[in-house]
Specification:
It is a single chain. The protein is of the alpha+beta class. Helices cover 32% and strands 20% of the residues. The strands form five sheets. Strands 1-2-6-3-7-17 form a six-stranded mixed sheet, sandwiched between helices. Strands 11-13-9-14 form a four-stranded antiparallel sheet, covered by helices on one side. Strands 4-5-18 form a three-stranded antiparallel sheet. The chain is globular, with a radius of gyration of 24 Å.
Amino acid sequence: MSSPERDNAERTYVLAHLDDLHADLDAWLRIPSISADPTYAPEVAASATWLAEALRRTGFPTVEIWPTPGAPAVFAEWPSDDAAAPVALVYGHHDVQPVDPLDLWEHPPFEPTRVDGPDGPELHARGAIDDKGNVAFHLLGMRAHLAATGRDAPAVTVKLLIEGEEESGSPHFAALLKEKADRLACDVVVVSDTGMAAPDVPSAVTAMRGLADAEITLRGPAVDLHSGSFGGAVPNPLHAMAKLLAGLHDEQGRVTLPGFYDKVRPLSDRERELMGRVPFDEQAWLAGPAASRVATGEEGFTTLERTGARPTAEVNGMWGGYTGPGHKTIIPAEAHAKLTFRLVADQRPEDVGAQVRAWVEANLPAGIEADVHTPPGGVAPCASDLDSPAMDALLRAIAQAFDTDADRVLFTREGGSGPEADLVEVLGAPLLFLGAGLPTDRIHSPNERVLLSMLTRGAEAAAHLWRELASVRF
């Protein structure tokens, strides 16, 4: 149970200026910055311009828009007046997911709409939490930090790097990091693209999974054939694909790619104990965000462990032959499938391509040829140091925003993937995660929302974090 509410100057300022945060977010959310669709490139650029102007209004003395071969990123810096103070870099993104299927939205996706929900007021819009909401609370958090501490500059040097291509796989992000490494040098990276376990459960993400993908094409006859004349006599690529994908997992739910688990770092007893502390109602999860009848997956692990701490393989799409109205009685010449793999500590995305090719080759029937395409790059998994002084500072900051003690802040893992590993590899700085999202926020889905009280918590926690980090020696 949380301790009684404790008034603090940061909270007082945040609560007095929530209208500013809400107005900023409403204006930003009206910009349809969909990076995956090239036709929205002007809107993604407009989103970067809006953020740059908002950062200048907040008081950041250095604000720049950094072009890339794709969408622009926004950089800002506010130096501390203490030359020895640590340097923190906030990472987030200003692009958003496409909105399809549009007919499932209860309100227009780029017209922010307030809704009374069971946990309090909600804001519905594409990007409400992923990731514009998570970035916007830092604007108010910085102002609250300065007002509460009476400073003209933050207690730590704060930099922001808000990219515009995260929802498109961050194809130019690593190159941007390398090009601007001197400007981005920092002691710690604060990732604001995640969330917490529940509205009343203060928690900190400690790891994110990596990602690799593959596309498989199977070819049989040189042309589509009449199924009456040739059916049962020649191999059918769609039959072969169905059988191949059915064997992607064994009876224990483990991925069957050869060598897939060779580098997987086992979960320690401590990690499993920490994850076990997170309250989780599986039936409510199934009926709510999962929208599924049963929970399934790798045997020997809980649902939370499967979604945050174990590697996975998923079939994202499968197609071929005729799919139009009526019948077209053919044996198709080709079949196709797209797969993605979520990776955990010590796995590398560049290893997955060879594993997929070996698996396909070992399971290919006679008369079928295969082409396996695995795009270069991918996303490596990443994790925080649970015992670092910086983590202690984060836990204290979150605890103050939730009126509790630091040892009551729980650890969670994020099942999704992003470019955080690039930040670690290029900048050589440890990661912290501070986000205000919830598992029920429907990110990437119709009716994305943010709980407005979580934005308030996020702004306050950010304000506390800059003060708490000032005492850390890296």
